[in-house]
Amino acid sequence: MIPTRRARLAATIAVVVLAILPYAVAGRISLSIFVFIGLFSLIVIGLSLLAGHAGQVSLGQAAFYGLGAYIAAISTLRIGIPPWLALPLAVSGAAGVAYLLGAPIFVLRGHFLVLGTLGLNVVMDVLVRNVQSLTGGPTGLTGIPPLSIGSLMIAGDRAYYYLTWTFVFAALWLGRNLVSSRVGRALAAVRSSEVAAATVGINPAFYKSRVFAASAALAGLAGALYVHYLSFVSPSPFAFNFSIDLLVMSVLGGIYQLPGAVAGTAILTVLREALRTIMPRVLGSGASAEYEIVLFGVLLAVVIIFSPAGVWPPLIKVLRLESARPRWAQVAPVAGVLAKSSSSLARPEPTGLLRVEGLRKQFGGLLAVDDLSFHVQAGEIYGIIGPNGAGKTTAFNLISGVLRPTRGTVYLRGRKISDLPAYRRAALGVGRTFQTPNVFPDLTVLENVMVGLHRLTTTSFTGAMLGLGRREDTQAAAQAAGYLAAVGLLDHAGLPAGALPFGGLRLLELARALAMHPIVLLLDEPASGLTGAERAELVRLIRRIRDTGTTVLLVEHDVGLVMEVADRVLVLNYGRRIADGTPRVVRNDPRVIAAYLGEEAVS
Amino acid sequence: MTLTQQLAQFIASGIVNGTIYALLGLGLVAIHSVTRVVNVAQGEFAALGALLASTLVARGMPLSLAAGVAVVAAAAAGGGVYRTGIRPARDAGPLTLLIITIALHLALKGLLLLVWGTNPYGLRPFTAGPPLRILSAVVTRQSLWVVGVTAVALVVLYLFFTHTILGKSLRACAVNPTAARLMGIRVERMSTLAWLIAGALGGLAGVLITPLTLATYDMGLILGLKGFVGVVMAGMSSYPWTVGACILFGVVESLGAGLISSNYRDGIAFGVLVAALLWRALSVLRGGLIVSEETAQE
C-alpha cells in the first residue's frame, strides 16, 4: 500500500499538530493523558498488526506491557543496569517470551493464542503480586530512575511526550513497511487461507510467531517507557482487564489500518476520562462509577454495531485518504518467465520424477485412497480420472501435503516428501491448484501472483519492516505481470482477486502456481466451469507449461480433455487403481468402461 | 488430616467448582455452535441469577420459586442480549462480535452494580444439615446439590438434543446453518433459543454456587473465563467433552491451590492451561502436520 499525496499531507498535519500540542495546551490540560495515549497506541499498533494482518487475537497484551515494565524496573533498581540499556532489555524480554509462547501455539490452527495469552496474563499477574522479594508485591516498586543518555536526563511530561510519540510514528512507519511488503502479502495470504498459503511455500506459523513477537516488543517498549516516566510500578495496570481494554481500542479504531490503532486508543482514553469528569457533575459524586461502566459498555456496543470495521475506514472515506495498491512498472517477457521453470528435463530420473508407493488414506470408516502406487516421468502430462469419490482429489491432497497419509510414501526426485509439511513440499517444487479456486480475495490479482513468487524472493521480516524489499518488489511485480500476461489476465491485474469471474479465478490460481516455478504441477479439475473458448485456451496452456519443463498431473472430470492432452492416464475407482497407460489403452479397458458406464455396458 | 484425606478434599471441592464451570461452558458451547460468538458476558448471567435469587429469598420468597425465577430471568437476559446486541451485527466478523460481547459484559456488569451495589449477597443452602462424609472427604450438602442439579440438567439437555425436534433442529443449525435453513428450520429462532439456553444455564450456575461462595456484581467474568478454558480444551463444540474438561480444570485448580498456596490459585490453573497448550502444540509439531484434517475437507 503506497500512500497518496493526500495521505502524506494528512500525516504531515498530524505530526505538526502533535509537535506543537504541548505548547498549545500548556497550563490548561495535563500532558500526561497524551503521554498515555502514545504509550497505549504503541501496544495497540502491535495488537492491530497481529489481529488485522496475522489474523490472531491476543488477550494478554497487558502481560507484555507489564513484562517490559517490570524488566525495566527490576533491572535498573535491583541489578543497577543503566536505564538506556534496560529499555532494549525490556523490549527483547517481552518479544522473547512471546516468541517462545507463539512459535509452538501457532502450529495449532484456530484461536488458541487467545487462550495462551489469557493464561499468560493471569499467571503474570499472580506472580507479580506474590513474588514480593523481586517485584514488591501489590504495592510495587518505587524510585525507578528516569531514562538518561550520558548527562542528558529525560524527565518530565514534555520529554516523555516527545519520546513516546517519536516511537509511535516509528512503529507506524515500520508497520506500514511490513504490511506492504513480501511479508505483508504472505500474512494476507495466510489470513485468507492457510491451506492455499502453505501450498505456495509459506509457513504460516513462521510469520505469525514473528508478528506476535513484534507486537509484544512494542508492548514491552511501552511498559519500559511507562516505568521510567512515572518512576514507580505496581501490578494493577497490567491485569487481564487492561488486555481487554487494549483489544477494544484496536477494534474500535479498525484493525486493518494501523493509524486506526492510534485513533481507537485516543477515542477510548479520552472517552474514559470524559465520563470520569462529566458524570459526577451531572449525577452528583455518589453514583458515577456505576453509570460510567453502563454508559461505556453501551457506547462501545453501539459504535461497533454501526461500524464493525472500526472508526478508521469511514474516516478515511470522508477525508479521501485511500492508499494506492502496488502496480507493475514493466511486464517481464513471458517466454523468459516460463522458460526458467525447472531443470527437471535435463536430469531424467530412473524411477520417475514423482513416485507414489502404497499410498493410503482412511477417513473414519471410509477408505478414500487404498494402496495407490504410480510414478510420473519428468516432462509428462499425467492424467488421473475416475468417477466421483474415486479418491482423485484426496490423492492430490496427500501428494501436496494438505493431508497426511495413513500409510505410504511419496518421493519427489528420489527424495521422500510424504513426511514434510505442505509448505516444505511447495518449496521443493510441488505446485497445485484447487478444485474450488482458492485465491486470496483481499489481495489484488497482481498481488496474488506475487505471493506465488514468495519462495523465490528473499526479503526478511526485519528487512521488510525497514523497507528494504522495494527493489525486489518491483522486480517481482514485473515477473508477476508476465505470468498474468501468459494466462491472459494482465488487464485485470489491479482488481481485487475476489472480483474475478469463475474462469478468471482458475486462471489466476494457475498463474500463481506457475510463479513458484514448480517441478511438478498438480491441476485439480482445471477445466470445470470454463467456457468452450476458455477450455481450448487451457489445453494450449497446459501443453505450453509442459514444454517449458514442468511436469503436469491433471485430475479432471472432462475425460475428453484428459485423453486429448495426457501422455498417460491413471484411472481410479473407490480409491484403487483400476487401469493405467496411454489414453488409447485406457479408453478400451473393459474395467474403465464398467466403472464409468456400469457393468451392463461391458457385457 | 492425612495427605490422602487432603487430596480427597481438594478433589471433591475441585469437582464442585468444575461443575459450575461446566454449566457456564455448556452455555458458551450452545452459543458458539449456533451463532459463532464467543460470549464474554456469559458469567454475567450467573451473577444475575445469583443476585436475584438471593434478594428474592431475603424478601421471603420460597427458595425453589426464587431459583426458578432467577433462572428464567437469566434466560430472558440471554435472549435479550442476543436480540439487542448481537443480531444487529450478526454478519460482522468473529472479532467484532467478541468485542460486542465485551461491551455487553461491561454494560450488564454496570447494571448489576447499579441495582445491587458492591455488597456481597448470601443465600442459605438448599437443605440444612451437617456436612456429609464421602470416602475421606467432607462434603457440604450444597455441594451435592450443585453436582446433582447439574447432572439432572445434563440429562435434560441430552434428551432435548437427541429426542426433540427442536433440539435436533438446534444441532442441525450448529452443523450447517445453510442446509438447516434449506430444510425449513428458522435459524434466527434457533439462535435466540441457543442464547436462552445459555442464559438459563448461567443463571442456574449462579443460583447453585451462591450458598457456597456469596454473590457479587462482578463474580461473572472469572467464572465465565474458566468455563471458556474448558470449552477450548474440549475443542469448542462438544457438550460432553466440555463438561469433562471443565471438571478436570476445576480439580487441577483446586489441587494446585490446596497443595501449593491459595494465593497462586488462578496462576496455577492458568499455568497448567498454558502448559497443556504447549504440550499439545509440540506433539503436533513432532507429527509434522501443518494443515489440519478438517480444513482440508472444506
Automatic annotation (TrEMBL), chain A:
GO cellular component: plasma membrane
Topology of this chain in the membrane: Multi-pass membrane protein
InterPro entries named in the record: AAA+_ATPase (IPR003593), ABC_AA/LPS_Transport (IPR051120), ABC_transp_permease (IPR001851), ABC_transporter-like_ATP-bd (IPR003439), BCA_ABC_TP_C (IPR032823), LivM-like (IPR043428), P-loop_NTPase (IPR027417)
A GO molecular-function descriptor: ATP hydrolysis activity
CDD domains given in the database record: ABC_Mj1267_LivG_branched (cd03219), TM_PBP1_LivM_like (cd06581)
UniProt subcellular location: Cell membrane
Listed transmembrane segments: 7-25, 31-50, 62-81, 87-107, 159-175, 211-229, 249-271, 291-312
Keyword annotations from UniProtKB, A to Z: ATP-binding, Cell membrane, Membrane, Nucleotide-binding, Transmembrane, Transmembrane helix, Transport
Domain ABC transporter, first and last residues per copy: 354-599
UniProt xrefs under Pfam families: ABC_tran, BCA_ABC_TP_C, BPD_transp_2
Principal localisation: membrane
Protein name (database record): Branched-chain amino acid ABC transporter ATP-binding protein/permease
Organism: Candidatus Segetimicrobium genomatis
High-level lineage: Bacteria, Bacillati, Candidatus Sysuimicrobiota, Candidatus Sysuimicrobiia, Candidatus Sysuimicrobiales
Automatic annotation (TrEMBL), chain B:
Swiss-Prot/TrEMBL GO biological process terms: amino acid transport
Sorted UniProt keywords: Amino-acid transport, Cell membrane, Membrane, Transmembrane, Transmembrane helix, Transport
Annotated protein name in UniProt: Branched-chain amino acid ABC transporter permease
TM ranges: 6-30, 63-82, 94-116, 143-161, 193-215, 227-252, 264-282
CDD domains per record: TM_PBP1_LivH_like
Main location: membrane
Matches recorded under PANTHER family: ABC TRANSPORTER PERMEASE PROTEIN, BRANCHED-CHAIN AMINO ACID TRANSPORT SYSTEM PERMEASE PROTEIN LIVH
Provenance organism: Candidatus Segetimicrobium genomatis
One GO CC annotation: plasma membrane
GO molecular function, one term: transmembrane transporter activity
UniProt-listed InterPro entries: ABC_transp_permease, BCAA_transport_permease
Family: Belongs to the binding-protein-dependent transport system permease family. LivHM subfamily.
Membrane topology: Multi-pass membrane protein
Location(s), subcellular: Cell membrane
